[in-house]
Design brief:
- The complex is a heterodimer of chains A (358) and B (185).
- In chain A, 70% of the residues lie in helices and 1% in strands.
- With 358 residues, chain A is mostly helical.
- Chain A has a two-stranded antiparallel sheet with strand order 1-2.
- In chain A, helix 3 crosses helix 12, helix 7 runs parallel beside helix 15 and helix 10 runs antiparallel to helix 12.
- The radius of gyration of chain A is 21 Å and the shape is globular.
- The two termini of chain A are 31 Å apart.
- Chain B has one domain: NADH-ubiquinone/plastoquinone oxidoreductase chain 6, subunit NuoJ (Four Helix Bundle (Hemerythrin (Met), subunit A)), CATH 1.20.120.
- In chain B, helix 1 runs antiparallel to helix 2 and helix 2 runs antiparallel to helix 3.
- Classes of the chains: A mainly alpha (358), B mainly alpha (185).
- The interface between A and B is medium-sized, with 29 and 23 residues.
- Chain B: It comes from Flavisolibacter ginsengisoli DSM 18119.
- Chain B: It catalyses: a quinone + NADH + 5 H(+)(in) = a quinol + NAD(+) + 4 H(+)(out).
- Chain B: InterPro entries: NADH_UbQ/plastoQ_OxRdtase_su6, Nuo/plastoQ_OxRdtase_6_NuoJ.
Chain lengths: 358, 185
């Protein structure tokens, strides 16, 4: 049976057989870097095309259909155009921070990849506090956005960055609390152990209504954290031109654009891991035969299937809901989501203590 | 020199350099950004000591929350090199002397410590399980009291930030104008 775990294991054995441990480690790091960059490029191309196709479907039109069969190469052509374009730096801008900001956003997005389990035994760093690590690093992307907004020396950029900062800092709270619900239920912060705890069913089904509430709150909060519509106040084009990246052009703009899609992928991967069992196939309790049939589908397909389902959900939000006003946005978080999620965490703790989940 | 030592030296030099840059930078925004770099290198040191939980909490609390608020405020007030008042030369000298005194005392205090005190990579006190046990068994009361301290600080902030009772329209208008000038955007 096809498995990524076997490939990585045999590769590691071969490396340690032929090189001394230090060089084997260096070569493994290089392979990981190449794979991460390849994944980023691939995701960028696929997700942008998916977004446009989903948008077209929602609005009953065709979407990109000129370049390649059914417009498959549209995003590749767009990327080529962005590479060719001149990357302008405004005269009044803070040159150093202006050019650094897109890379900060990108590097932060790359760092979050480390603890994500893409398939069974296919993980860059099995850190024992994986979930905490993810929420720590994801809170840093706001620094890059603030840098971009301030360094542009443009009032729209600054306002966009400020809105984005307020938004990310406040929605992190309810996202963190809904992650905590699963941590309380599974009793571990390690991503591997959380997945292993869903062997006999995913938490979304095992944890009764409180976990479903946590899942809904998590999806709302991560949509806000990634600055997606209906929470895209940071780049509300009717008010702020393009928000924090108004002054960016060419490849520097493309990096922001790419980082947005990578962040969507990552938060959806985390959501899939916590609530939908990560790479764990769909198991129902002790139905051995059914579970065995499900086990025949490779774990990587399960993981990417669930992740792309959640990505589709977030895209669906974007083309369905109108944009919120900034006061509505903050009211929603501080007056509704946060109290609900705090109470919900209490319920989940009670369930976990009494063992009421399946 | 193993990988651990190489990493230690890189982290230590970066930490000292960025900490110096926090003080030296003329632009407040740069100071805050260098401070974020400093917190990162300190988190790197925690990871070298195998205290991953402390490292991540350091990033969440300082780099992720407090420094973002710092940046927020400084950017919103639009402080930059031109608006920053230049201190006199003697004040800078006095600051350097005071900092040097502190360094002297620290070096004198730590000179006689045992050399092999740190546990590189192997220590496990910083792991979340051990830390949680220590906090909730041996130090429950101080831990809970510190949480009450946070709560009172939060309540204080809310009280301070609450809307003032009604003031005449004229003064309110003037206030708005003043804030707009202060923000200058």
């Amino acid at each position: 049976m096809f498995s990524l775990e076997g490939i990585t294991k045999s590769l590691q054995d071969w490396l340690y057989l032929n090189f001394n441990p230090t060089w084997a480690l260096v070569i493994e790091c290089l392979i990981v870097i190449v794979l991460a960059i390849a994944l980023f490029a691939f995701l960028g191309l696929v997700l942008v095309l998916m977004e446009r196709k989903v948008a077209a479907h929602m609005q009953i039109r065709l979407g990109p259909n000129r370049v390649g069969p059914k417009g498959m190469f549209q995003t590749a052509a767009d990327t080529l155009k962005l590479i060719m374009k001149e990357g302008l730096t405004p005269d009044g801008a803070d040159k150093f921070l202006f050019n650094l900001a897109p890379f900060v956003v990108m590097i932060v997005a790359m760092l979050i990849l480390a603890p994500i389990a893409f398939a069974k035994g296919f993980q860059i760093w099995d850190i024992n506090i994986g979930v905490l690590y993810v929420s720590a690093i994801s809170s840093l992307s706001v620094i890059g956005i603030l840098m971009a907004g301030w360094a542009s020396n443009n009032k729209y950029s600054l306002l966009g960055a400020m809105r984005s900062g307020a938004q990310i800092v406040s929605y992190e709270l309810s996202a963190g609390i809904s992650i905590l619900c699963i941590v309380v239920l599974s009793g571990s912060l390690s991503i591997n152990e959380i997945i292993a705890s869903q062997q006999n069913g995913w938490w979304l089904f095992k944890g009764h209504i409180p976990v479903i509430i946590a899942f809904v709150i998590f999806m709302i909060a991560v949509t806000a954290e990634t600055n997606r519509a209906p929470f895209d106040l940071a780049e509300a084009e009717s008010e702020l031109t393009a928000g924090f990246h108004t002054e960016y052009s060419g490849m520097k703009f493309a990096l922001f654009f790419l980082a947005e899609y990578i962040n969507i992928f990552i938060v959806c991967a985390i959501g899939a891991t916590l609530f939908l069992g990560g790479w764990m196939p769909f198991h129902i309790g002790n139905w051995q035969d059914f579970n065995h049939i499900m086990d025949y589908i490779p774990s990587s397909i399960w993981f990417f299937g669930k992740t792309f389902f959640l990505i589709f959900l977030i895209m669906w939000f974007r083309w369905t809901f109108p944009r919120l006003r900034v006061d509505q946005l903050l009211n929603l978080e501080w007056k509704y989501l946060l109290p609900i999620s705090l109470f919900n965490l209490l319920l989940v703790t009670v369930i976990a203590i009494f063992g009421w989940h399946f | 020199m193993g990988i651990t030592q190489i990493l230690f030296w890189i982290l230590a030099i970066t930490a000292i350099f960025s900490a110096l840059m926090v003080v030296i930078s003329k632009n407040p925004v740069y100071s805050v950004l260098w401070l974020i770099v400093t917190f990162f290198t300190i988190s790197g040191h925690y990871i070298l000591l195998n205290a991953q939980f402390l490292a991540v909490v350091n990033i969440i609390v300082y780099a992720g929350a407090i420094m973002v608020l710092f940046l927020f405020v400084i950017m919103l007030m639009n402080l930059n090199k031109e608006t920053e008042p230049q201190k006199s030369k003697w004040l800078k000298l006095a600051g350097a002397v005071a900092g040097g005194c502190l360094l002297l005392v620290l070096v004198a205090g730590l000179r006689h410590t045992e050399k092999q005190m740190t546990e590189m990579v192997t220590g496990d006190i910083g792991l979340i399980q051990n830390l949680g046990k220590v906090l909730f068994k041996d130090y429950v009361v101080p831990f809970e009291i510190s949480s009450i301290l946070f709560l009172s600080a939060m309540v204080g902030a809310v009280v301070l930030g609450k809307k003032e009772p009604r003031i005449p329209v004229e003064t309110e208008m003037r206030k708005v104008e003043e804030t707009q000038q202060a923000i200058n955007i």
